[in-house]
């Protein structure tokens, strides 16, 4: 938690193992025993953070589950205090190979939780079997990232329902 | 160009106005007269860079134009030397408000070019009029960003055709 707090306050460049030791009251040598670098420390902090957990929604329909997933990504990228951490850490990962390994683990871990959504939708006959579930997550989560972080535009219900409608229209069936 | 080269080589944190002056042979004072900070300098460099230009495709069909758009985003994020610049600058924008203004301008500028695709598709009756064109761009470009930068996974034709199929299925009509 100290690691994530410090990233939120100072950005990735302001994060130091010394700072984490001070904030957490854990000896610096102890930290280095488990994490060789600040990027390894941040990678693990991201994967383990309960506050960054995505709920695995179970609303009874694919559309409902995808809306819940999109809303949890919107919260992750816009709601303080975690949005500052998430955006800073993900942005830093774009140019730091060692931190990228942590980010990749974070996305793998979250996707493993999300697969339930798609297994249930297949079981209910709501999802075209030829559509790759990871591509659905990438489309929706990517659209939110682009809009919030790169365009700096607000994300309202028009936007979230619009992107889910497009994806449901292309990936869903029946309904 | 010196600005973008330096970002590619050193990352955003390694970019300095001094470095740009040295590389470009332009006096530091002259640079500061036009750009108050390195983030302003980088913002303008991004918007003006021909190498970061997206082709505005005109293949005669919405599907063809969206495939071309996706392929140009893939090139932007994976093909050296510009991919290093693009990923470093966009990642840095995630936590720097002044640089974010430049990134936002870059995305506005590119979107102004992309609207032609959607006007033509509407004219041909290929696009549902209720779908927001910007949401289509956000879905496709966001999916490529997420896959390349955050997941670190390869982007093959399976992926690019898969995301365009989903978006065409939800946003297109007729066909």
TrEMBL record, chains A, B:
It comes from the Bacteria. Residues 16-35 bind DNA. GO terms for molecular function: DNA-binding transcription factor activity; transcription cis-regulatory region binding. It holds the Pfam family TetR_C_11. Residues 1-53 form the HTH tetR-type domain. The keyword rRNA-binding does not apply. InterPro entries: Homeodomain-like_sf (IPR009057), HTH-type_TetR-like_transc_reg (IPR050109), HTH_TetR (IPR001647), Tet_transcr_reg_TetR-rel_C_sf (IPR036271), TetR_C (IPR011075). Keywords: DNA-binding, Transcription, Transcription regulation. This is DNA-binding transcriptional regulator, AcrR family.
């Amino acid at each position: 938690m100290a690691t994530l707090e410090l990233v939120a306050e100072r950005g990735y460049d302001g994060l130091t193992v010394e700072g984490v030791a001070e904030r957490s009251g854990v000896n610096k040598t102890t930290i280095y025993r488990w994490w060789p670098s600040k990027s390894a420390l941040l990678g693990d902090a991201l994967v383990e953070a309960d506050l960054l957990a995505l709920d695995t929604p179970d609303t009874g329909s694919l559309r409902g589950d995808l809306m819940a997933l999109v809303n949890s990504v919107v919260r992750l990228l816009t709601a303080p205090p975690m949005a500052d951490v998430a955006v800073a850490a993900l942005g830093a990962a774009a140019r730091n190979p060692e931190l990228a390994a942590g980010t990749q683990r974070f996305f793998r871990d979250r996707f493993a939780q999300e697969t339930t959504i798609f297994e249930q939708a297949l079981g209910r006959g709501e999802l075209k079997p030829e559509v790759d579930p990871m591509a659905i997550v990438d489309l929706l989560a990517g659209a939110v990232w682009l809009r919030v972080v790169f365009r700096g535009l607000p994300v309202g219900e028009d936007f979230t329902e619009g992107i889910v409608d497009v994806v449901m229209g292309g990936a869903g069936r029946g309904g």
